[in-house]
Write a structure and sequence with these properties.
The complex is a heterodimer of chains A (about 290) and B (about 400). Chain A is built from eleven helices and two strands, in the order ααααββααααααα. Chain A has helices spanning about 5-35, 40-60, 60-85, 95-115, 140-165, 165-175, 180-185, 190-215, 220-235, 240-260, 265-280; strands spanning about 130-135, 140. In chain A, a hairpin with a 5-residue loop joins strand 1 and strand 2 (about 140). Chain A is mainly alpha-helical and about 290 residues long. Chain A is about 75% helix and about 0% strand. Chain A has one domain (about 5-220). In chain B, helix 3 (about 90-100) packs parallel to helix 4. Chain B has twelve helices and 14 strands. The two termini of chain B are about 30 Å apart. In chain B, the strands form two sheets. In chain B, strands 6, 7, 8, 9, 10, 11, 12, 13 and 14 form a nine-stranded mixed β-sheet that branches. In chain B, strands 2-1-3-4-5 form a five-stranded parallel β-sheet, with helices on both faces. Chain B is an alpha/beta fold and about 400 residues long. Chain B is globular and about 65 Å long. Chain B has helices at about 5-25, 50-65, 90-100, 115-125, 155-170, 185-200, 215-225, 235-250, 270, 290-305, 310-330, 335-345; strands at about 40-45, 75-85, 105-110, 130, 150, 175-180, 200-205, 230-235, 255-260, 280-285, 350, 355-360, 365-375, 375-390. Chain B has two domains: about 30-155 and about 290-360, Rossmann fold (3-Layer(aba) Sandwich), CATH 3.40.50.2300; about 155-285 and about 370-390, 3-Layer(aba) Sandwich (Rossmann fold), CATH 3.40.50. At the A-B interface, helix 1, strand 2 and helix 10 of A face helix 7 and helix 8 of B.
Chain lengths: ~290, ~400
């Protein structure tokens, strides 16, 4: 393995990790901080991708498509919380699992009714199209590098929001001491609605921004859901930093699994998860339970 | 002998004796009332990823049967349609439901190979005819071949085999193969390998991502490091679209010629835009085959369904011809097993894909075309292999 080959594969892994973080960050918020098991996270990812594709087809502009799809998904998230999830906080996790699973079926079927079964591709926006040559045979797409920087920005913003702002402090307190925060005069119901909306918007945003490199197709959220849970569990539930490190671990493990262990590549990620959990059952940055 | 087996034994023995007795004094075709409808069981995907394929096959088949008068061998048809959901675990139950509960005379299906293998097993147990309008698993007409099983589509090996010769003719000596790690991928890869290595080419590496993962970056970096003369891939649908785009974005398309079976580009090359430009594929059909029958078929299909015809519609159309001609030969008597098998084995189908016959293992002997995407369209370059038959290895009838 030559050095440049090793470096490019590392770059592939890190880049995949960034993409995973973007999807998993919304899940960390909802699952890790609010304690809601949202199986429909992948379905919201798909909703984002389809909206971006559809708006881009209509308007001819990817940026415009992003601006139009984001409010739609935020509203979708807020409505889902207000009319359904809100009634499930006090109940057993099983109710959340059942409801959000139902939501997957509904969203998948809606997607089929509205957009059909075809596979769609989104052209990469013109200023970011093109590639940078790395070796004499391989180039690296500029859009993927742009994706990585977007992910870093989202990661930083989320970390600051949760760890450094007053709002973040209330959110964190609300997740563990709901009644106490409420008694102190905070409108906890509205707060959680906003957090859930943000979580859904993050999933959908990941779907949108990854659509030009990922293609848009039915059932695209199902695989991403599983890998997102792996990321959150490795990183430790409720930690943005953990989700970031978890995503990097999964991205790099997956890439090098394919290169070094081609016959067993499918299990490498899950083996890493098992090892991490044996060593630290609460995940890398999770609170001890 | 279990109760179930005993019952089946008695049933089969009884049927055998009845048939023998009937055959001894009157031709069997008169033993069945001509008034009764033929029950055609259609087990195809009408929901999920393959729904579009299921609908194209069904619509084209019915269109063809209606062109032929809407009857099979003079008998009216009752269609019994069932959505197989492309779910192999449900395959046996669904096939039994159509053949045993609904008493279908002939079973037609399906797209997914895993489901088709389950259907083949049930059809054999129930001693019924099965006509496969898509599923390409090689085993269906190799080690699982049987007298009452016919395929009107292709085997996974078939469109891939001529591709190796094409690559050699283009002057390539080394190749990397990349396909999902699942049977259809292995079978297709084997086809390419068989011809490419036989002609002196060398396969440097096989890269096998898990199905249905679409994360190809690691594999593309490997290809760039290995620098083969050409690359052969088997992906379809969303995976195919993403692979073409990634291959192009990695800068490999301009340097290393990409080959694949037609499933790589069909239905998605327009979405891929310039990323599909120049890719060469081989398949038993091309949209722009310049024959009257192909043009007429494409116009009629578009007129009836408002959709463009594709290779799946062609396979459905040919399944219609297959049923029409076979049952006409026995005047609609599906019970006349031997006569019907004989009629089907000797069938010659004038298809939009060209005229084809069936091999001893009941698999089309057909022309494989070479196509290439250029200036945004998939163009027919010529015939890559004339009258190609699947080897039928392991089939006892071959």
């Amino acid at each position: 393995m030559s050095l440049s080959y090793f470096l490019i594969q590392t770059l592939n892994g890190v880049q995949y990790g960034f993409l995973l973080f973007l999807v998993a960050s919304g899940l960390t918020l909802v699952f890790g901080i609010m304690g809601v098991i949202n199986l429909a996270h992948g379905a919201f990812y798909m909703v984002g991708a389809y909206l971006a594709w559809w708006f881009a087809e209509q308007t001819g502009s990817f940026v415009l498509a992003l601006l139009l799809s984001l409010p739609v998904t935020v509203l979708l998230g807020l409505a889902t919380e207000r009319f359904a999830i809100r009634y499930l906080y006090a109940r057993d996790h099983l109710y959340q699992v059942l409801f959000t699973y139902g939501l997957i079926l509904i969203l998948n079927e809606l997607q089929r009714l509205l957009f059909g079964n075809d596979v769609h591709g989104l052209p990469i926006p013109a200023p970011l199209a093109g590639s940078i040559p790395l070796t004499e045979a391989q180039s690296y797409p500029i859009y993927r590098i742009f994706l990585s920087f977007t992910c870093i920005a989202v990661a930083a913003a989320l970390y600051l929001l949760i760890q450094r702002t007053r709002l973040g402090m209330v959110i964190r307190a609300g997740s563990t001491h709901r009644e106490m925060v409420s008694a102190l005069g905070f409108d906890i119901a509205r707060l959680f609605m906003v957090v859930f909306g943000l979580g859904v918007a993050l999933a959908a945003f990941a779907g949108m921004i990854a659509a030009p490199v990922n293609t848009v197709y039915p059932g695209m959220g199902d695989h991403i859901l599983i890998i997102s849970f792996v990321v959150v569990v490795i990183g430790g539930i409720g930690s943005i930093k953990g989700a970031f490190v978890g995503a990097m671990v999964v991205g790099i493990a997956d890439t090098f699994g394919r290169v070094l262990l081609p016959t067993g590549a499918g299990v490498v990620v899950y083996a890493v998860m098992a090892l991490v959990l044996l060593w630290r059952p609460q995940g890398l940055f999770g609170r001890t339970v | 002998m279990t109760a179930h087996n005993r019952r089946r034994f008695i049933k089969q023995a009884g049927a055998g004796m009845g048939l023998a007795a009937a055959a001894s004094f009157v031709p069997t075709r008169f033993a069945i009332g001509q008034k009764a409808k033929i029950k055609l069981g259609l087990m195809l995907p009408y929901s999920g990823t393959y729904a579009a394929l299921g609908h194209n096959i069904t619509d084209a088949m019915k269109m063809r049967i209606n062109e032929g008068g809407g009857k099979l061998g003079g008998r009216e048809i009752e269609y019994v349609q069932l959505d197989d959901e492309s779910a192999p675990p449900k395959g046996k139950d669904n096939a039994s439901r159509l053949l045993v509960r609904d008493k279908c005379d002939i079973l037609v299906g399906t797209v997914h190979s895993g489901v088709a293998l389950a259907m083949a097993q049930v059809a054999k147990e129930e001693n019924k005819f099965l006509v496969i309008p898509n599923a390409g698993a090689v085993d269906l007409t190799r080690k699982n071949c049987s007298a009452k099983l016919f395929r009107t589509s292709f085997s996974n090996w078939q469109p891939a085999f001529p591709c190796g010769d094409v690559a050699l003719k283009d002057g390539h000596k080394t190749a990397v193969i990349m396909t999902w790690k699942y049977p259809a991928g292995f079978e297709s890869a084997q086809g390419f390998k068989d011809s490419f290595t036989k002609g002196g080419g060398k396969i440097i590496k096989e890269i096998l991502p898990d199905f249905p993962s679409v994360e190809f970056q690691a594999g593309l970096t490997e290809i760039a490091a290995l620098k083969p003369d050409c690359v052969y891939v088997f992906f379809a649908g969303a995976g195919a679209l993403k692979f073409m785009k990634d291959y192009d974005a990695a800068g490999l398309k301009a340097r290393i010629q990409l080959y694949g079976p037609g499933f790589l580009t069909d239905g998605v090359y327009k979405q891929a835009g310039s990323a599909a430009e120049g890719i060469k594929t081989t398949l038993h059909y091309a949209d722009d085959i310049d024959t009257p029958i192909n043009k007429k078929f494409r116009a009629a299909f578009k007129d009836q369904t408002k959709r463009d015809a594709d290779v799946y519609a062609v396979q459905g159309y040919d399944t219609g011809t297959f049923l029409l001609q076979g049952l006409a030969a026995v005047q609609g008597d599906v019970g006349a097993d031997k006569a019907l098998i004989k009629a089907w084995e000797g069938i010659k189908i004038d298809s939009p894909r060209g005229t084809f016959t069936l091999s001893k293992s009941h698999e089309p002997i057909q022309d494989i075309y070479l196509r290439q995407v250029y200036s945004g369209d998939e163009k027919l370059l010529g015939i890559a292999h004339k009258a190609l038959a699947d080897p039928g290895t392991g089939c006892t009838m071959a």
